[in-house]
């Protein structure tokens, strides 16, 4: 049975760096799909005859973002039934393509549905990262873990990944974002499908090119979308698809918090208007409700961290 592999490269303003990427494509890759996302810097001249893999170039008539480019590449690649493994590689030559054979092995032999790079495994490597990028990655990584449910993925914002055809075919591509939020929205969809993710350690590569992402706008764009992923994940996992002990923890936490908050505000305002001191018993009831709510939330968090999608048995 043919099990061919494909690299999808979203191209935007990378210029000649794209050639450096193509020159490093490993032998395990049979197809490379480049999606020109209406880049103001045109594609460099590519001599496709010198490569042993088949090169396919697609062009957008307007800029759709990295996610939009990847969805176009996915749709094209899925048309070829021989392609069983799909890898995303950026066009700026910041990804170590020698890692792709290791990534493919995880998908083929070790039960992974999705494999991605992990740059945050060594303190010395983290120190080499630009300070702003380092702090942003660490904070965003933690929030992403919490919202997507993939607590075992050490570097969830890493855009270097591979995915099986079977897993990709289950995803609703229309639910994936077109912007830089693409990778995170992909994690959200993978969780709902119970996909097991394997992280592979690989050092980061940083060059002199300037990122197209506006770092100042990241919190304003990412946080509301992450919150929606969290609400969707909780709704599906704990209430729609199944009810479990985590559902009880979470529901109980919410009930005690809402009741305690309303109870405390009502009695405080009532006693304030009457000009009397709030009784100690009222304060204790309020504090007890909040304390029970917090403990139930911690119990849910413990349950949630232990129930990320597990590796499939081969």
Question: Please, could you describe this protein's structure?
Answer:
The chain folds into 2 domains: 4-238, Spore Coat Polysaccharide Biosynthesis Protein SpsA, Chain A; 243-305. The chain is built from 10 helices and 7 strands. It has helices at residues 17-23, 65-78, 100-109, 123-128, 131-148, 165-170, 182-192, 218-240, 245-274, 280-305, and strands at residues 4-11, 31-36, 54-59, 83-88, 114-118, 161-164, 197-201. With 314 residues, the chain is an alpha/beta fold. Helix 5 (131-148) runs parallel beside helix 8, helix 7 (182-192) runs parallel beside helix 8 and helix 9 (245-274) packs antiparallel against helix 10 (280-305). A 7-stranded mixed sheet has the order 3-2-1-4-6-5-7, with helices on both faces. It is elongated, with a radius of gyration of 24 Å. Helix 1 links the parallel strand 1 and strand 2.
Explain the layout of strands and helices.
Elements: E1 4-11, H1 17-23, E2 31-36, E3 54-59, H2 65-78, E4 83-88, H3 100-109, E5 114-118, H4 123-128, H5 131-148, E6 161-164, H6 165-170, H7 182-192, E7 197-201, H8 218-240, H9 245-274, H10 280-305
Parallel strand pairs: 1-2, 1-4, 2-3, 5-7
Antiparallel strand pairs: 4-6, 5-6
Helix pairs in contact: 5-8, 7-8, 9-10
Task: Tell me the number of strands.
Answer: 7
Strand order of the largest sheet: 3-2-1-4-6-5-7
**CATH architectural name of the largest domain:** Alpha-Beta Complex
Q: CATH H level of the largest domain: which superfamily?
A: Spore Coat Polysaccharide Biosynthesis Protein SpsA, Chain A
| Share of β-strand residues | 5-15%
Rg, please?
24 Å
Intertermini distance:
18 Å
Average residue-wise pLDDT: 89
What is the count of helical runs? 10
- What fraction, in percent, of the residue positions are helical? 40-55%
Which spans of ≥5 residues are poorly predicted at pLDDT below 50?
none
What is the count of distinct domains? 2
């Amino acid at each position: 049975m043919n099990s061919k592999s494909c690299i999808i490269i979203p191209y935007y303003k990378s210029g000649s760096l794209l050639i450096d990427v193509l020159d490093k494509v490993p032998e395990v890759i049979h197809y490379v799909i480049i999606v020109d996302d209406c880049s103001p810097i045109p594609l460099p001249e590519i001599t496709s005859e010198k490569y042993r893999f088949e090169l396919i170039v697609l062009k957008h008539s307007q800029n759709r973002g990295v996610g939009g480019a990847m969805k176009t590449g996915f749709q094209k690649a899925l048309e070829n039934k021989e392609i069983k493994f799909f890898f995303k590689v950026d066009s700026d030559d910041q990804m170590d393509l020698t890692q792709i054979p290791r990534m493919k092995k995880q998908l083929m032999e070790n039960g992974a549905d999705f494999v991605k790079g992990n740059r945050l495994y060594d303190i010395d490597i983290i120190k080499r990262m630009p300070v702003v990028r380092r702090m942003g990655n660490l904070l965003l990584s933690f929030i992403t873990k919490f919202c997507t449910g993939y607590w075992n993925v050490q570097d969830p914002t890493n855009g270097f990944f591979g995915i099986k055809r079977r897993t990709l075919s289950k995803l609703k591509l229309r639910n994936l974002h077109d912007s830089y939020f693409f990778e995170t929205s992909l994690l959200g969809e993978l969780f709902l499908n119970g996909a097991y993710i394997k992280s592979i350690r690989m050092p980061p590569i940083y060059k002199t090119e300037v990122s197209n992402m506006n770092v100042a706008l990241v919190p304003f764009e990412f946080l509301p979308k992450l919150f929606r992923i969290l609400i969707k994940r909780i709704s599906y996992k704990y209430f729609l698809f199944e009810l479990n002990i985590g559902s009880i923890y979470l529901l109980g936490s919410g009930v005690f918090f809402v009741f305690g908050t309303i109870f405390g505000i009502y009695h405080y305002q009532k006693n304030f208007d009457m000009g009397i001191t709030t009784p100690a018993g009222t304060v204790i009831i309020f504090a007890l409700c909040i304390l029970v709510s917090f403990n139930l939330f911690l119990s849910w968090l413990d349950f949630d961290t232990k129930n990320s999608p597990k590796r499939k048995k081969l």
